[in-house]
Amino acid sequence: EVQLVESGGGLIQPGGSLRLSCAASGFTVSTNYMSWVRQAPGKGLEWVSVIYSGGTTYYADSVKGRFTLSRDNSKNTLYLQMSSLRADDTAVYYCARDRGYSYFDCWGQGTLVTVSS
Amino acid sequence: QSVLTQPPSASGTPGQRVTISCSGSSSNIGSNTVSWYQQLPGTAPKLLIYSNNQRPSGVPARFSGSKSGTSASLAISGLQSEDEADYYCAAWDDSLNGYVFGTGTKVTVL
Questions:
Q1: Region A3-18 average pLDDT
Q2: Which residue among A30, A101, B57, B80 is least enclosed by CB atoms within 10 Å?
Q3: Cβ proximity of A88 and A41 under 8 Å
Q4: What is the DSSP string of B32-92?
Q5: Up-side HSE of residue A8: CA atoms within 13 Å toward CB?
Q6: Per-residue model confidence (pLDDT) at position A96
Q7: Alpha carbons A93 and A82: distance in angstroms, whole number
Q8: To probe the interface with B, which of A50, A88, A92, A102 has the most B CB atoms within 10 Å?
Q9: Do B99 and A59 touch (CB under 8 A)?
């Protein structure tokens, strides 16, 4: 069964850093495109970042220079390193398997990040 | 930032047909395929339609999608109470080098 499980969310002060993890099972992260999508409380979905199977990454302008997407092939896990966090980064963060410029066919349950003093 | 425009709400009685529109531009819907997601309260989004009009295994046939030019639409035929949810469209945007989502539509079953 294809499954994604996020972890690492929590309460963090503005300006702080946090690393989210997304553990995959049932498929290989390194041979797939993988994305992070976030949803602020009561708001819509916002794409954050993608990593291609070859390792190339792209970011939304709202997080560029502050977030870094990486993966550990030995652990079949995706990571989102977030720094210089701001209040408007508060959201549930979902990882999703990305079918390449087209759609997300598998989503994790999400992990909540709250940026507040 | 939502670049695709959807109506904020739609409603119907059980058994009715409901249609949700999704308007974009030449850099997203106009040049790439559209997908649709259903988000039930308190849960993660679920893929409903991909490649404009394809349904993943397990998605009921009452859900259908279409695309024309820079717009797309999702239709729910034979509306059921369990269809009450938020619906989002999405597409890759060649100018932004990233995905854009619709503003979301809340479907209410009266």
A1: 98
A2: B57
A3: no
A4: S-EEEEEE-TTS--EEEEBTTTBPPTTS-TTEEEEEETTEEEEEESS--GGG-EEEEEEEE
A5: 18
A6: 98
A7: 11
A8: A102
A9: no
Q: Is A5 on the interface with B (CB under 8 A)?
A: no
User: Which tens digits make up the pLDDT trace of B57-78?
Assistant: 999 999 999 999 999 999 999 9
Judged by CB atoms closer than 8 Å, whether chains meet at B103 and A44 is answered as: yes
pLDDT of residue B1: 57
- Sort out which chain B residues have CB atoms less than 8 A from A104's CB and list them: 35, 37, 45, 47, 90
Q: What are phi and psi of A88, to 5 degrees?
A: -80, 5
Interface test with B, best of A46, A89, A103 (most B CBs within 10 A): A103
Rounded to a whole number, what is the distance in Å from the CA of A16 to chain B's nearest CA?
Answer: 23
Q: Between chains, do B102 and A94 touch, taking CB under 8 Å as contact?
A: no
B25 — pLDDT class (breaks 50, 70, 90): very high
